[in-house]
Structure formats: C-alpha cells, structure tokens
Amino acid sequence: MARFLFSRLLATLPVMLTVLVVVFMLLHIGPGDPAAAMAGDNASAEQIAQIRQRLHLDQPLVVQFLIYLRQLAQFDLGVSVYSGRPVATMILQRAEPTLMLALTTTLLSVLVAVPAGVFAARRLGLVTDYVVMALCVAGFSIPVFVIGYALMQVFAIELGWLPVQGYRPLASGLWNSLRSLTLPTVALTLLFAALVARITRATLLNVLSEDYIRTARAKGLPERKVVATHALKNIGVPVVTVVGTSFAALLGGVVVTESVFNLPGIGRLTVDSILSRDYPVVQGVMLVFAFVLVVVNLLVDLSYALFDPRIRQDMRS
C-alpha cells in the first residue's frame, strides 16, 4: 500500500509543477501591462507602480517565479489587489457553499442514477429503458440555468416552498442550510445523474455479457441475485471514477449555478475576480482547484481496491 501510494504521489509532481507554471504565467500571457490592467483605466502612474511593486512585477521573471514558490511553501496565496485581504482567507470563506452543494449533489446523483442505470440495463430494449435514456439525454441537453429558473418559478415563486436565492450557512442550522441548497442541488443533479446513469447502464451491460454471468445463470440463480451478487460489484470502478471526477468539478465551483441561485461560493468568487482582473485571487482559486483535483483523483485510485481484487493485490505487492 505504501509503495502504491508513493508512486501515485510521485506521478502527481509533474502535474502540479505544470499547474504552478501555468498559474504563475497568468499575469504575463495577456497583452499589455498586467499592473495597468488591474489598476484600471483611471489609475495614476503611482497606483500602477504600487501594484507592480506589490506583485513583484518589477523583478525579472525568474525572480518572480522563485518568490511565488517561496510564498506557496509558506501557504501564502497572496493578497487581493482590490480588497487587500489574503486570498486564502477569501477562498476559505467561500468554500462552505460550494462544498455543501458538491456533497448534496453527489449524494443525490448517486442515489438516483445508480438504481436508474441498473433498472435500464435490466430492461434493455424495453419501453422503460428508452424512457430512462430519454431522461438522461434531456438532462444533458437542457442548460442548467434553464432548469434553475424553471425550478425557482415553480417551487419558490408560485408555491413558495423554498427560498428563491441565497445561501444559509450551517451556523444557522442544518435544515436551513439544506433548504437553501435544495433547488441548486436538484438542478445540478439532473445533469450529473444523467452522466452517472448512462455510465452505470453501459458498464452493467458489459458485465452482464461476461462468461461468469452466463455461468451463474446456467446454475439456475435468479436474475436478481445474479445482478446483485455477481454483476454490481464489478461496475464500481468506472462508476466511482465518474462520481469522483464530477465531485472534483463541483468543488472547483459551478459558476452558472452559483450565479443563478446567488450562492457566495468559489465559482462566484472566480467570476468576480476575473471581471475585476484581480489576478492574485484567480491564481489562488486555480491552484486550489488543481490541488483538490489531484487529491480527489488519488482517493479515487485508492478506492479501486474496494471493487477490484487485482488492484488490491497490486497495492500489497
């Protein structure tokens, strides 16, 4: 296990190094002077010079990169150009809505999509199979903001069951927090559940065509037992991969959903920072997202051992 974990961590080093270089170069790949762009059109020469000095843009590029690495080694993501607040603090303050939305969406998607995919696979070619696949296509095709506005119109404005927009923090109570996330969770679930259901169905159909499944059927086992005992445990790897990737994407901030429902999450922070050209915040968000994606992929790799004994054996060797 230790050797497997070490090899996976070693494999992430080139990825993180590439991300560091790309994120660092965000200040330099655009046209013109980045300090002047952040200062705005009406800024004075003195204000531009202050921003340039604060971000070390008056230093050679190599020196700037070394300073950037030194700050990261001290867990310093920099300071916002406009608010003057530490970027790490701004991200942490916006993390709760995004994390809660990611958790609720992932949980609901799995609870809905996996049974739907199994149900469709067991009824291949029947009307119910086509209905499930049609719903999946609709989930992929309809934009999230359209679903979001439709849900707000029906359940928030007309029926008055749920709040229209905004987020209630966990400090106000778990029920209040979940209630404020119900509509955005349902809107995102229609998208991610469609993906998970299609993967579940396709993977289960491949498993059901294997020789050991035919052998189990030849022994006279009921179809329900064949699926539950022999087939389901072998669809875990691709399903977990999709779920893990989707969860990482949600943690990166779902920009459209957070904008529609006015959620003060990481996605909104990213959009606001890009519009205001607050490059230190944009750099910090991208770096945190890359780190989260690497960690989630590592956890997904480790979870494969729960479903595939061959991978478990490789970890032990």
TrEMBL record:
Domain of life of the source: Bacteria
Transmembrane segments: 99-120, 132-157, 177-197, 235-261, 281-307
GO MF term set: dipeptide transmembrane transporter activity
Pfam families on file: BPD_transp_1, BPD_transp_1_N
Assigned keywords, A-Z: Cell membrane, Membrane, Transmembrane, Transmembrane helix, Transport
Subcellular location: Cell membrane
InterPro entries linked to this entry: BPD_transp_1_N, MetI-like, MetI-like_sf
Single GO cellular component term: plasma membrane
Membrane-related topology note: Multi-pass membrane protein
PROSITE patterns with a match to the protein in the record: ABC_TM1 (PS50928)
Family per record: Belongs to the binding-protein-dependent transport system permease family.
The protein's name in its UniProt record: Peptide/nickel transport system permease protein
